[in-house]
């Protein structure tokens, strides 16, 4: 019974280490300054780490299904806290990534149209329109990512429920198989007992028949002796 909790604790420990790594790498502004490529690399690494953390959550969901009910109430809140922590850092990662993309978009627009003037700090009206459109596209992409993440979480929960149901069904099948095996053993024993009883019955019949034959012979001998002597 201790194995499921041990594995859960191990996955939770790995998850916390991954989240700590994400915390360090998301501080991209202070860590790499204005180096855009370094910031991109850091964000790509963060995405990979978050994927690993997501895998740890999936493993924790699987392990919690096998934890005894007496302990599950202690581990369920820990799983939910880890899920909330993962969602929070995924959201922050998307925000930092969107901020970086918007910064690049502003930089490209400024270099393409000859920079900005003091009268128009954000460029011309056309430039601002393009930037607004780009910003809306980014926000739409963010919303789609959030929706996809929500669907993925719901799918994971449904998958965990299905696995739990399959595990219970497997236990029921194994119990039924054990019962059938026990019944089969009992039937074999009963059949052997009946065979022994039948053999003994035939043996007793043979003995009785032999005794009867002997008695008849003895009676005939006695009668012969009395009548013909």
TrEMBL record:
Superkingdom classification of source: Eukaryota
PANTHER family reported for this sequence: VESICLE TRANSPORT THROUGH INTERACTION WITH T-SNARES HOMOLOG 1A, VESICLE TRANSPORT V-SNARE PROTEIN VTI1-RELATED
Keyword Cell inner membrane found: no
CDD domains: SNARE_Vti1
Subcellular location: Membrane
Alphabetical list of SUPFAM superfamilies matching this protein: SNARE fusion complex, t-snare proteins
Record membrane topology: Single-pass type IV membrane protein
Domain Vesicle transport v-SNARE N-terminal: 6-93
InterPro entries for this protein: SNARE (IPR010989), v-SNARE_N_sf (IPR038407), Vesicle_trsprt_v-SNARE_N (IPR007705)
The organism of origin for this protein: Piloderma croceum (strain F 1598)
Similarity annotation: Belongs to the VTI1 family.
One GO-annotated biological process of the protein: retrograde transport, endosome to Golgi
Positions of transmembrane segments: 206-225
Main location as per UniProt: membrane
Gene Ontology, cellular component aspect: cytosol; endoplasmic reticulum membrane; ER to Golgi transport vesicle membrane; Golgi apparatus; late endosome membrane; SNARE complex
A molecular-function term among this protein's GO annotations: SNAP receptor activity
Listed name of the protein: Vesicle transport v-SNARE N-terminal domain-containing protein
Keywords: Coiled coil, Membrane, Protein transport, Transmembrane, Transmembrane helix, Transport
């Amino acid at each position: 019974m201790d194995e499921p909790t041990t594995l859960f604790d191990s996955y939770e420990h790995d998850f916390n280490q991954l989240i700590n790594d994400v915390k360090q790498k998301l501080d991209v502004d202070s860590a790499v300054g204005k180096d855009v490529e370094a910031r991109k690399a850091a964000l790509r690494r963060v995405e990979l780490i978050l994927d690993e953390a997501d895998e740890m959550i999936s493993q924790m969901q699987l392990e919690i299904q096998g934890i005894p009910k007496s302990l599950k109430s202690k581990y369920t809140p820990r799983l939910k806290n880890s899920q909330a922590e993962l969602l929070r850092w995924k959201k922050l990662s998307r925000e930092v990534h969107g901020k970086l993309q918007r910064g690049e978009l502003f930089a490209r627009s400024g270099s393409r149209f000859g920079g900005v003037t003091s009268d128009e700090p954000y460029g011309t009206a056309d430039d601002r329109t393009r930037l607004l459109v780009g910003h809306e596209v980014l926000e739409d992409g963010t919303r789609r990512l959030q929706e996809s993440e929500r669907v993925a979480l719901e799918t994971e929960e449904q998958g965990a429920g299905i696995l739990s149901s399959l595990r219970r069904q497997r236990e029921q099948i194994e119990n039924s198989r054990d019962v059938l095996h026990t019944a089969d053993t009992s039937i074999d024993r009963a059949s052997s007992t009946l065979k022994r009883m039948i053999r003994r019955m035939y043996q007793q019949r043979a003995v009785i028949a032999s005794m009867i034959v002997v008695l008849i012979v003895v009676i005939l001998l006695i009668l012969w002796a009395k009548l013909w002597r």
